[in-house]
């Protein structure tokens, strides 16, 4: 039996095309997915990004689905949140072919049940992997059919109904699509809005010739920052490769943290539904739950990862959720993540008042943070234990292990240390009152991790 553990991740399937992932294997994944969801739905909606390998792989997946008697609706080139829209609005399971911000040689499959409900290791992905490893059983009935559908206009119209920008003052916004799917969706979503878009790298190119399509890495927003300053824009927005995440810079070209965006959007959603629940993962700034509570909301803390966020949103009926990685989840969007909707919220908030974005977001940026710092270690468990032992004896320190190790210290500083699921890494996030305190605590923890 083949061992697929290297490419079947916690939330998706991802690997190097030609070495780990090819059309024959993807056809089997399609058949296994069909077997999983056959009792629930008559068809599967399939979309793909701009990578050279995506059309062929998505067609192979469709062959696998139809080989099990289910129909396929193909929507062609799309962003991941556009696929979620199709899954939600058509009430069908879905599959998106993308490797997000990974290099060109990679591709992958993000799958969901009808209504954009996630398929992860605990919700079907392990079962799909087992079926493929053991051999997909043949189906003797009639093959399914394939139809094409264009949902881009419906997707754009749906987003514009959720955020009213009709009263916005005119804005100039630089958008860096990173040669990813934002270049496909932004022109349609923003059509007719009082926003002048200054496009950067809108050409769809899965080789990412200008920079990696990962806006959380500071080196990948340097061009955006420079262009915002050069053209005197009100804001800048960068999308990742499959355009489900967005990253924002203000009129000075300074990054706005995803935690500040989470707080800003949460306040807007709470204005529509006072007393609502807002989900935040444990690495977002502690300013997020503070601000949610101050505006009458109920903050709920979760582990990192979209399957945990979505499950908790379903359990609590939450109106919104945000992660430190710039994933933003909306109940009105089938609890799925959409960077485009978050971007519209930010621009609506900016356009409703006369001040610059830096002033608007200042109220939502209360603390200094390290960002995620990765350390390669030989023994994750031993290093984690060394850090835990060192801080367990400190007066006033509070420790929890909801996701890795989180240590709250007297005076408000805290850090989280988590092992990577796929690499020999420990990931550290630190927050404190000011930059000096962040650096001091970071140095202390890293000395234990790397020492």
From TrEMBL:
Give all residue intervals belonging to the Alpha-D-phosphohexomutase C-terminal domain.
372-446
The keyword Isomerase appears for this protein: yes
Spell out the protein name for this chain.
Phosphomannomutase/phosphoglucomutase
Quote the NCBIfam families the UniProt record gives.
Answer: PRK09542.1
> Which keywords describe this protein according to UniProt?
Isomerase, Magnesium, Metal-binding, Phosphoprotein
- Does the record's keyword annotation contain DNA-binding? no
PANTHER family per the record?
PHOSPHOMANNOMUTASE (PTHR43771:SF1)
Spell out the InterPro entries in the cross-references: A-D-PHexomutase_a/b/a-I, A-D-PHexomutase_a/b/a-I/II/III, A-D-PHexomutase_a/b/a-II, A-D-PHexomutase_a/b/a-III, A-D-PHexomutase_C, A-D-PHexomutase_C_sf, Alpha-D-phosphohexomutase_SF
Required cofactor names: Mg(2+)
Checking Pfam families in the record gives: PGM_PMM_I, PGM_PMM_II, PGM_PMM_III, PGM_PMM_IV
Its family remark reads: Belongs to the phosphohexose mutase family.
Alpha-D-phosphohexomutase alpha/beta/alpha domain location: 8-134, 155-253, 264-366
């Amino acid at each position: 039996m083949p061992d697929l553990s290297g490419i079947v991740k916690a939330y998706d399937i991802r690997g190097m095309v030609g070495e780990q992932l090819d059309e024959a294997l993807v056809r089997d994944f399609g058949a296994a997915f069909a077997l999983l969801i056959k009792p629930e739905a008559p068809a599967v909606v399939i979309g793909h990004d701009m990578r050279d390998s995506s059309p062929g792989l998505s067609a192979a997946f469709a062959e696998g689905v139809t080989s099990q008697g289910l129909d396929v609706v193909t929507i062609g080139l799309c962003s991941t949140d556009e696929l979620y829209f199709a899954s939600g609005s058509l009430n069908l399971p879905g599959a998106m072919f993308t490797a997000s911000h990974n290099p060109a040689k990679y591709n992958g499959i993000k799958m969901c049940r009808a209504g954009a409900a996630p398929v992860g290791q605990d919700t079907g992905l392990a079962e799909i992997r087992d079926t493929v490893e053991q051999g997909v059983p043949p189906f003797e009935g009639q093959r399914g059919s394939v139809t094409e559908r264009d949902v881009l206009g419906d997707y754009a119209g749906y987003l514009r109904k959720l955020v009213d920008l009709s009263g916005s003052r005119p804005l100039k916004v630089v958008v860096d699509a990173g040669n990813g799917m934002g270049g496909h969706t932004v022109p349609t979503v923003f059509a007719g809005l009082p926003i002048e878009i200054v496009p950067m790298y809108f050409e769809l190119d899965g080789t990412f010739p200008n920079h990696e399509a990962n806006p959380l890495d500071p080196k990948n927003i340097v061009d955006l920052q420079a262009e915002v300053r050069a053209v005197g824009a009100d804001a800048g927005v960068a999308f990742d490769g499959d355009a489900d995440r967005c990253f924002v810079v203000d009129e000075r070209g300074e990054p706005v943290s995803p935690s500040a965006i989470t707080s800003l959007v949460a306040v807007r959603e709470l204005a529509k539904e006072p007393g609502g629940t807002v989900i935040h993962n444990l690495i977002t700034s502690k300013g997020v739950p503070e601000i949610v509570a101050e505006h009458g909301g109920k903050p709920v803390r979760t582990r990192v990862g979209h399957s945990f966020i979505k499950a908790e949103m379903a359990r609590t009926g939450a109106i919104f959720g945000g992660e430190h990685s710039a994933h933003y989840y909306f109940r009105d969007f089938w609890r799925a993540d959409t960077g485009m909707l978050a971007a519209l919220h930010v621009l609506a908030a900016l356009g409703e008042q006369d001040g610059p974005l830096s002033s608007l977001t200042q109220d939502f940026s209360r603390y200094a943070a390290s960002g995620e710092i990765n350390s390669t270690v030989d023994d994750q468990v031993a290093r984690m234990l060394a850090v835990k032992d060192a801080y367990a004896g400190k007066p006033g320190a509070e420790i929890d292990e909801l996701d890795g190790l989180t240590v709250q210290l007297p005076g408000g500083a805290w850090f989280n240390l988590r092992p990577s699921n796929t690499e020999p890494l420990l990931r550290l996030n630190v927050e404190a009152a000011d930059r000096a305190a962040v650096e001091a605590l970071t140095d202390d923890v890293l000395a234990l991790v790397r020492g």
